[in-house]
Structure to design on (510 residues):
């Protein structure tokens, strides 16, 4: 019996089955003959049978205007999945795939038009980051625009740098400004700030385009925690690496079935996970202190005490990290959280303080915090000049936001309950929550791309990967009506090309 996955791709849909009436008798006769023979045990694919016996009708059907629903369903299926499609049905779907290639090239352009329209007459921020995979350096660009009470995000671009021989800020500036949605007019009138990691290239890029850089708060917190436990983390990492060899793993299995865990540099929870596993090994006495293989690597008694206390303190940092991952976190929420953390751990002031060296634009960030805290009357003239693009205007158009707030019972939530409630109705500025304090949205995009761009799909071109990611991330911006307009526009262009060819042929005969 055919599985649902195969049957979904092997049929033409209800509309297509109704169109099979002209050769329904041929189909019924084939099914009777198949039932009477041993072939009834084989899976029957309608598309394969139609492609073999009525190929001309299939080509005509796929080229008709009735194919828009089929194209939409195929697009929704291909962009919604993470694993690659099965190749068992590629042969009977050759005409369909060829027809979809034309629509695939046109649909992202239609979505880009909608994205560009959403950036008109409204302030917006750009969240960006880089990701290197398979000798390609991809740059992800998100645009966040304000809504009535929150914000909306759209993927602007996800593609390799135009010139990968240099990774300077000037190259990133050229790449960013050459995007279709970020022309010179939109950058000058609407772009409020850049949001990204606190690295030298991003700081230089912000200076080149004369915009403030809001550093990623998750990145700042992670730098502070790693600096606080730098020596201990390095020693535990070396021990975990040693425990991964064959002989050490064999000795470890005599005590526990737990495996050593290395620190994951790309995850904020990497240090906490590794230290928790090390403390578990120490409590089980799974590591022999007298073994010469570990004696030189083992932390001192004082460092072991610090690790034990750090594991308890990491729960606080974990609570803050999870809160920073939520959608509705704002600049004032982050400032309130960091101030509370500095009171408990003064060393964090050098990493997450309001005027620390990791803050590229301290005046701009303090201005946003004051606006979100209903302290606009405390703004200085210099601070007001920082947010001139955020002043409410009559021509501002805001999208409708349908996201809901999720609450968590932890330290971060209890801390945020004590902050003042933001008064948005009386503010003379637009809702500033679209200036997000982290670049975690781009990090999540890269995690998705890591699954899509698996080692078994390295033949996938960067252009195809960009189309899949672009349509999947901007799923809320396209629907069946948009795909239908693309299908009709494609047909009109084909008809126009045919008419031009006919005119050329006629002129040759004259």
């Amino acid at each position: 019996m055919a599985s649902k996955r195969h049957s979904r791709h092997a049929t033409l849909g209800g509309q297509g089955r109704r169109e099979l009436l002209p050769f329904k008798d041929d189909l019924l006769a084939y099914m009777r003959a198949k039932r009477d023979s041993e072939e009834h045990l084989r899976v029957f694919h309608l598309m394969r049978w139609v492609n073999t016996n009525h190929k001309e009708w299939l080509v005509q059907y796929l080229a008709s205007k009735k194919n828009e629903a089929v194209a939409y369903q195929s697009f929704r299926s291909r962009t919604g999945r993470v694993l690659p499609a099965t190749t068992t049905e590629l042969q009977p779907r050759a005409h369909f795939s060829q027809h979809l290639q034309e629509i695939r090239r046109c649909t992202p352009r239609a979505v880009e038009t909608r994205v560009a329209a959403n950036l008109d007459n409204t302030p917006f921020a750009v969240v960006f980051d880089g990701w290197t995979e398979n000798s390609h350096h991809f740059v992800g660009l998100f645009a966040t625009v304000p809504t009535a009470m929150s914000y909306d995000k759209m993927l602007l671009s996800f593609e390799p740098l135009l010139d990968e021989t240099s990774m300077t800020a000037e190259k990133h500036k050229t790449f960013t400004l050459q995007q279709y949605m970020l022309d010179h007019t939109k950058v000058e009138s609407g772009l409020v700030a850049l949001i990204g990691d606190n690295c030298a290239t991003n700081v230089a890029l912000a200076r080149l385009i004369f915009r403030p850089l809001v550093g990623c708060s998750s990145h700042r917190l992670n730098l502070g925690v790693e600096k606080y436990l730098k020596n201990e983390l390095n020693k535990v990492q070396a021990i975990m690496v040693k425990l991964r060899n064959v002989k050490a793993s064999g000795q470890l299995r005599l005590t526990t079935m737990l495996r050593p865990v290395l620190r994951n540099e790309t995850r904020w929870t990497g240090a906490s996970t590794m230290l928790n596993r090390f403390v578990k090994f120490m409590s089980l006495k799974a590591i022999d202190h007298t073994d010469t293989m570990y004696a030189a690597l083992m932390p001192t008694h004082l460092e072991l005490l610090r690790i034990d206390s750090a594991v308890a303190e990491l729960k606080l940092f974990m609570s803050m990290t999870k809160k920073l991952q939520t959608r509705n976190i704002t600049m004032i929420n982050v400032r309130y959280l960091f101030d509370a953390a500095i009171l408990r751990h003064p060393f964090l002031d050098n990493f997450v303080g309001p005027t620390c060296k990791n803050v590229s634009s301290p005046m701009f960030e303090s201005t946003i915090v004051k606006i979100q805290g209903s302290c606009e009357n405390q703004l200085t003239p210099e601070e007001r000049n920082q947010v001139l693009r955020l002043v409410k205007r009559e021509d501002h158009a805001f999208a409708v936001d349908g996201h809901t707030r999720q609450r968590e019972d932890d330290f971060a939530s209890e801390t945020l309950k004590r902050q003042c409630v933001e008064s948005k109705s009386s503010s003379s500025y637009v809702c500033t929550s679209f200036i997000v304090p982290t670049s975690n949205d781009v990090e999540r995009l890269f995690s998705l791309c890591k699954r899509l761009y698996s080692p078994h799909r390295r033949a996938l071109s960067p252009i195809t990967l960009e189309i899949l990611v672009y349509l999947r991330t901007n799923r809320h911006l396209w629907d069946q009506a948009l795909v239908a307009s693309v299908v009709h526009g494609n047909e009109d262009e084909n008809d126009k090309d045919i008419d031009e060819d006919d005119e050329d042929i006629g002129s040759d005969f004259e």
Remarks:
- The longest strand covers residues 136-146.
